[in-house]
Amino acid sequence: MLFKKHKKISAETLIDLKRYIDRFISDEVTDDLPIPSAVECPAAGAYAAREEPAYPAVKAAPRKGRGKAAAPRAEASARSLSDALEHIDESFSEMLFRKIDERDITDAQCYKKAQIDRKLFSKIRSQQNYRPAKATALSFAIALELSLDETNDLLMKAGYALSHSSKADIIVEYFITHGIYDKFQINEALYEFDQPLL
User: Fold this and answer.
1) Which letter, b or e, does each residue of 86-111 get, where b requires 16 or more Cβ atoms within 10 Å of its Cβ?
2) Is the pLDDT of residue 60 over 60?
3) Which of 14, 69, 136, 156 lies most in the core, judged by the most C-beta atoms within 10 Å?
4) How many other C-beta atoms can be found within 10 angstroms of the C-beta atom of residue 160?
5) Which helix (H) or strand (E) holds 50?
6) What is the pTM of this model?
7) Mean pLDDT, rounded, for 60-73
8) Residue 36 has pLDDT above 60, yes or no
9) How far apart are CA 18 and CA 28, in angstroms?
């Protein structure tokens, strides 16, 4: 069920993928786009009519007594920081192993399908705060057949995100949104568009 035979990416898929990429990234300069009028964008007219700054000038506070006023603020910041640190969200590795359990597969099935080295997988398992490379995190997302939201959550745990300013990210997003979790096909598409492989 989890392992599927790799099939070559079709020409139709590549054409559809090109259209998908073009929705987010265009190599053409768009200098000829019309500037919205005040009717189309009321705020534009309001700001254009102003001659004075939008915000009143702030007067500098007197130097005397500054230290006293800053103390409660620092104390509140320290409290909120300690509160935040007490409620840390699950780490990348915790989410990864939770998803493996939810999919009811073995660790070996997961890292083999992701094409991740066993030693690296062991390191992720033993180090709760291990931060993998983005390609590694995406490989696990594809191996686990995560939805786009789940993929973004997993990436966020590792400190990454899918971005529409990256052609590689758009390609990966295309395959995930179309339910195609074949890493071979994804890498073939990445290669076709001169992007780094997973």
Assistant:
1) eeeeebbbebbbebbeeeebebeebb
2) no
3) 136
4) 19
5) none
6) 0.66
7) 53
8) no
9) 15
